[in-house]
Give the backbone structure.
Amino acid sequence: MTETPHPLPSTDPSSASSSSRAAELHSALDTVFDEVVEDLTSLVAIPSIAWPSFDPSHVAASADAVARLARDTGFTDVEVLTAATDSGEAGAPAVVARRDGPEGAPVVVLYAHHDVQPTGDEALWDTPPFVATRRGDRIFGRGAADDKAGILVHLTALRLLGDDLGVGVVLFVEGEEEAGSPSFRNFLRDHRERLAGDVIVVADSGNWQVGTPALTTSLRGMASLEFTVTTLDHAVHSGMYGGVVPDAALAMTKLLGTLHDDDGAVAVEGLRAEQSTDVDYGETALRRDSGVLDGVELIGRGPLASRMWTQPALTVIGLDLPHVDVSSNTLQHAVRAKLSIRIAPGDTPASALTAVKDHLRAHAPFGARVAFGAEEGGSPWCADLSDPVVGTAMEALTRGFGTDSVQIGLGGSIPFIADLLEEFPRASILVTGVEDPDARAHSANESLHVPDFRSAIVSEALLLEALGRGA
Ligand SMILES: [Zn+2]
């Protein structure tokens, strides 16, 4: 990035329509956009994979590069900070930059992350993963969308607005999101004063379709549960006892069969589920994107989007049985399984785990014993739709894209949202992002849709202006 363009005068909402303001911002973006793409290219060139088995110097280099871009954008108070994980290891470096707003103005925290997923098998990439490559409307490269574009949405929105900003800003660019944010909670606690804000904009999600902006207003939570089913005190010969003594594999498979009904919907009582969504998936696209085989039916009930966003899902992700190649004629005395539970917004991991455990105990066949092992949980999240900031953000997206924005959910989790809420319970959290259904974040051939990237930048500038006006 070279120099800051002349800031555009803020629009007086009473005299000019906000759609013409969007047009002004779009044309201001035209004049700097080549530089924005250069900055994105230089960030993508740094293989900032924060996983423990990768060279941490790249993550340090990307933190430094983001800090430099922040200074170029006009921040004078820029720091690269770390915190320790719970086990005492150093977390990855995050960039925190601050800019005061007018007295009494709200403070907006702009979150993104500068670390990326590993590339996976590079042979699956059509272009080199760490060389940002433009093809048609898209820029390919690891991190081009997730989430180095998110960093540049924040910085470029600020660049367009120049010094004429009605809000205070904290830029917070984490360096270990893809590695599960192991020091994030401690980071929030250690640097609480520097990070505190009234509105937190998390630019790490996506839009509904190319050209259709979305605010992500719900995320499913997740939990996992290991358990063991036991029927005998030791394994025995299947010829001698088969047919009269129940083996643990039989008990386990019958028990697992009770977790879903004939439609494949989760049959565990006490799990929260909601069927309403703002938009819905088309079955054809869903079948194509997921790779469901012809003739295989979809499972569950209700709108497809609700099955992915607002209803629970339960999956057997591990089952300890002898491998077929080494199996013998034996009745297994004990079998262990691991379940993954996606939790609907409004539910809690503790309540969901209790419901699943109660179900397993109550449905164990033949009096088989059920013992529970390790469990984990991450909370779901649901935006407070009565918060006026949600409407402000939807409006800014609509203006910036020139198309009505929609609210979407995410079937997966962003666990750090719960951490943010715990540390800053009164803050409004807005989850936005630049990904689209074909962005392939985490996969080979990740890419950014350039026109949507531009619209996201303009939308965020409009949002910051609106928040500065107290909207
Ligand atoms: Zn991300």
